[in-house]
């Protein structure tokens, strides 16, 4: 088994690579800038160049690959359909695709179309339909938490089914190790419990020892504030869209799929906050880790 891990620089791809490393599995990490990745990680991972906007990189990246952890990349001029064609030409035997929870009701997002493309491709697939990443709290929500002790996002009072990206990676590893068992299957992966952002703020306050509040801005307030801070309007609109189902009360569903697959409980939100607390709190020298 040789796996190509795409999305290495994202919140899930890096966790897939780490778990593959821990278990001494054969894999290669696809990145746009191999030299930069090697400077950052040394010889911890093996890298190959892959740029989804440049079909000239597709063939070499897939050489000798049996399975692919596939994520839809950010950016312009993405040649995703062409990449799938090369996957088939190269004889890849299994694709594990990171999708989103409730994708079947979201025809306006890339994942809806991509799942259909993958089904038509004729290569065995596994869809991991993910809930809301806990890691968003230290990613695009992290700056406001660090600087103003507030969760600032227009999600209303709705609950959402948070999931740790390490659990998503765990499911991917199971799929790679047991491809026949996961052949042409879909799995909705969430944590055990859904939370609203008021509850998240309470948990973070208890763990961090710093009072965190949920500001609950309106969409208009959020967009105006973020654009005035210098964020690109396109990105701000994406963030609004991500949280719109939560605001409508549509994101609270949880499943037991992770426990059935891994025979263990999903990572709790409290543990996530404890594990990553230095993302919000300065260390002894006042620098963020």
UniProtKB/TrEMBL annotation:
- Put simply, this protein is called NAD(P)H-binding protein
Q: Which residues form the NmrA-like domain?
A: 3-239
Q: Which Pfam families does this one have?
A: NmrA
């Amino acid at each position: 088994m040789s796996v190509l891990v795409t999305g290495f620089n994202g919140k899930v791809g890096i966790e897939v690579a780490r778990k593959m490393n821990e278990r001494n599995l054969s894999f290669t990490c696809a990145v746009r800038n191999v030299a930069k990745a090697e400077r950052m990680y040394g010889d911890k991972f093996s890298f190959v160049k892959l740029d989804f906007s440049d079909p000239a990189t597709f063939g070499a990246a897939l050489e000798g690959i049996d399975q692919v952890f596939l994520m839809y990349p950010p950016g312009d001029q993405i040649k995703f359909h062409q990449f799938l064609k090369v996957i088939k030409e190269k004889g890849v035997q299994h694709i594990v695709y990171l999708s989103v929870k409730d994708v079947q009701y979201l025809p306006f997002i890339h994942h809806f179309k991509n799942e259909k493309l993958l089904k038509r491709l004729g290569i065995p697939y596994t869809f991991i339909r993910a809930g809301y990443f806990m890691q968003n709290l230290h990613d695009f929500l992290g700056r406001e938490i660090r600087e103003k002790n507030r969760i600032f996002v227009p999600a209303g009072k709705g609950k959402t089914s948070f999931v740790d990206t390490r659990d998503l990676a765990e499911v991917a590893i199971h799929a790679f190790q047991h491809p026949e068992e996961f052949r042409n299957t879909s799995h909705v992966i969430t944590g055990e419990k859904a939370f609203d952002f008021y509850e998240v703020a309470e948990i973070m306050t208890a763990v961090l020892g710093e009072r965190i509040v949920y500001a609950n801005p309106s969409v208009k307030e959020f967009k105006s504030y973020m654009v005035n801070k210098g964020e690109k309007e396109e990105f701000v609109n994406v963030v609004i869209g991500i949280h719109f189902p939560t605001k409508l009360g549509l994101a609270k569903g949880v499943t037991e799929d992770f426990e059935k697959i891994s025979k263990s409980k999903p990572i709790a939100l409290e543990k996530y906050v404890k594990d990553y607390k230095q993302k919000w709190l300065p260390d002894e020298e006042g620098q963020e880790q």
